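ok so for the tutorial part 2 we go from a plain amino acid sequence to predicted structure tokens. step 1 is just haveing the sequence, like this:
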Amino acid sequence: MGKQSQIARSLLVFFTVIMSLVSAGFTVLGAGFNPESGLDGSNPGIIDNEEIIEYVKLLISPDNTIRANAEQKLEDLGDASITAIEKVLRDLDPETKVLRGVAAKFLARIKSPRALPALLFSVNNDEDTFTRVNAIHSLAKIGIANSEVLSTLGEALFDLDEDVRTAAAEALGAFGEPAGEYGIDLLLLSHSSSARFAWACRVAAGKAAPGIMSFTDDTIEEIISRLPTLEWQDLAATALGRNANKTLPRVAEIAFDQNQLLGMRIPALKAIERSGVLDQVIVARLLDLIACENESPLIKMAARDVLVKRDPTRYPELADQIAAVIADNPLSQYVSDNRIPIQVENFAVTDRENVLIRAVIGFPAEYKIESEADYAVRDEDSRALYFRMKPLSYWEDNLSAVRAAEIEFYADLKAQDRGIYYVDFNQHERPAAPAVIDASGQVRVSIPEQGMDVISTPNLDLGERWLMQLVVAQDGSGNFPTVQAAVDAIPGFNDQRVIVYIKEGFYHEKLIIPADKDMITFIGENRDTTILNFNETPYVQYSTDAQYRIANASTAILSDDFTAENITFSNLAPVGTGQALAVDLRGDRMVFTNCKFVSHQDTVFANTQGRLYFYRCHIEGDVDFIYGPATAVFEECDIVNVRKTGGYVTAASTPPEKEFGLVFINSRIIGDVNPGSVWLGRPWRPYGHTAYINCYMSEVVQPTGWHNWGKPSNEETARYEEYNSYGPGANPDSRVKWSRQLTDAEASHYTVENILKGDDGWNPKR
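step 2 — the prediction. this is what the tokens look like for a chain of 766 residues:
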């Protein structure tokens, strides 16, 4: 909670490292070595690598003269210094990262081919951003564009760290035409959502492959060849769409060619969708495509998506047809003819048999699905497929009826193609399981977005389109082995909801959802066994510098309209190591259902001026473990203190102009701790607002209820309220006099709908 200045702490650590290294330079070799010898221009004679290392350490000396002379000495030694510098770079001790970064940068001054192994090692293995970026810059300045250097830089274009990605793009550009094989990569990446990285790629593409920005026929064909690939599909469609004045004839040729695979045609239609104004001829052909009886339903849906983005007034002769097509959207209904469609994309370059397909499916209550015997899974040719079901949730009014489930089925897939399958409530056939299955992934699944109304508990704003699902499985059977990899695969500035279905597992990874990736839904296989964990605090760092600069929380969610269900978010840093945030929440309209938040101090940071909704969640900690400026509702949640001597539940920092801060409705305040040891809250900022409405207060609650954080002035401003608290810890007469017990009329305003409505009328509760 900003209890200690991060900048001051970083400077203290920095200068401590510098002085310790300088000190080491004077003592490691004993009295016989004087690190200043030879730094006055005299010849110190032949020295060994250990002595050279001492000169390397002086590169971060606070004394400008010593540092400058050390640089000159090492530069004079030239190749003779590289072995020692490489030894420094291969020592990945966190305490030496400043030295490694400076040493990597210094190698650019020597400009020796012998430095390449050390620099490549740093790029591939060092976790420090400063070191990796400097190593990349040094590679560019040395200027040897061999295959190992180029492939390393090519891989760095996809690094999680934007600074590293940008440096790699700039380095490839610096190599010029020898890096030409990465021209198309750079061209496509110039359409990324990060403006800084995209611009670096655009400049580099022009240098590595002169003329590529003019979109020649060869360039267009190379981009088109990437349309059916998982890594490049979205960027390729964007690049083709934004340059439609040159690409549209060829893209349209593919889109309307029935002899082409769906895996090529549908992305081509996506490229047309992302283009500018279309002429009437193209629009008429799209209408014909939709009307064609022999055309695939997937093609018709993709063609309709193109028309939805067009202004029909530009085509007066076709306006009525366009309106009719848009109104007759097969994806407007989740279930049609008692069937749920599932789109499956195969990104493998070969045909495959019995491929494992996973999908999260919602079963409408009226079908009363209890087992696999209640429906079938079929392909487009009505052939029944073996499948199995794992329930994720049940309907509350019929606990034997499955509401949402993971289903697995096995299908034969054509290379780089896609097809449509059905959950069929009209049939009940289930053939035997195949003897051999292909569980190597490389598939992607989508269902109608309206299905989220069944799958998901909160009330969401849904469209009439496909809902992409990405599967995370540590055994490699999903789309990705890590959650961050799945998030990274979601296009920036996406305007369609995406489900990330996370199989059971302990996912020890720093997770950051950037601000440009809205509308993401996490669904876990099981709340207690699907765990997202990392163990950082403001004083203990394990992630990269770039990640740590964003947040020291285990999971940081910076985007809007995020939802999560059946997930445990945890930070298992040892007690006593400071703030241990499980989540840092910075977006608006975020919903957590049946989730668990585990830590001790500062578990949930409601770090936003936006709105948050927690429903039937378990949140545990000891000190200020729910805090921040957000407007947040916790409904039917268990709030659990885990420190025997108790602590504080909330530390609100609500701005004075906001009516609502942290509001608990029908929740329980519990814990296996000393009776009377838990305060309901204390104000992190003077106008903090916290309210408990119809909440159970166990014996752990301190009779006075609230704490002023040692500042009597907070008693004049803090807004602390209760209504109808019950249980052994409910003591309205004993509460501090500066808190309030609400009247019936006042409490009537404390509803989810009213608290979270904002200016847009948001209501996540059904």
